[in-house]
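User: Could you check the structure of this?
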Amino acid sequence: MVVSKSLHASAAAIALAAVFSIAPLEANAATIRALTIATDTTTTQPPERCDQFSTAPTVSCSVSDSTAGATTNASAYANATTGEMGVYVENSGYDFSTQATASILEGFTVTTGGTFTFSVLLEGMADIFDNDPVFEPAESFQVSTTLVVQQDDIFGPVKGTTGYRAPDILQQSVDQTRSMSLLLDPGHYVFQADLLAFIGAGTRGTLDFIHTASIFMETLDGAFTFDTAGFLSNPAFLDEPSEVPLPAAFPLMLAGLAGLSLAGRRRRISQIAV
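Assistant: Sure, the predicted structure tokens are below.
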């Protein structure tokens, strides 16, 4: 099946433009969003689209579509309590340009100025097969995270930006954390985290990053409060390293070493007595 590249380009542009149309932060409430779009590039019909944004603790969205020669699935998820975001995109043919986006937007008030650290974690798998050389000269896919901190509100000055974009490797496992430390004075700020997965028409494969991204915020010398009660009250991102478990045979080894030491001590005592 041959599809014009101009149709593909326009459909992809429409889909990508929708990713960043995040709703303004509502007063005293975190805003989370899940957005999925599947565009059939073989027709001019509107794309399959699911767009959910809410001040509820969790939100999710999914779409699926099919043609005679292809199927696609996309899911997105966001959780304001844990700070988790997840996206999943799968294209089994060449006909669809599909994306999934999860976003978390929250305000916070710095009551004591200091250094504040913001982190975004990304884990998941990319399994991209091949492309249709007639339709698209190279594989078209993307996985990325962004985290932006602004003063006052979403229209205020940008204080810092961080994030990560996975390299264009067809089969890969991703485990990356990006952090930034900002010196913030007392006042009100907002931060927004976005997670994007996209597979373009002409490319087959899977981007599995569902429930595997999270955000975290901490300070050692400042103080702050989130606008929303319960926000990040159970963060999935743990900044502290976990304890390394001891091997099951380790206590037995210690007991054996203690026994050898005791036996040697007894022999030395008996020699002195003689």
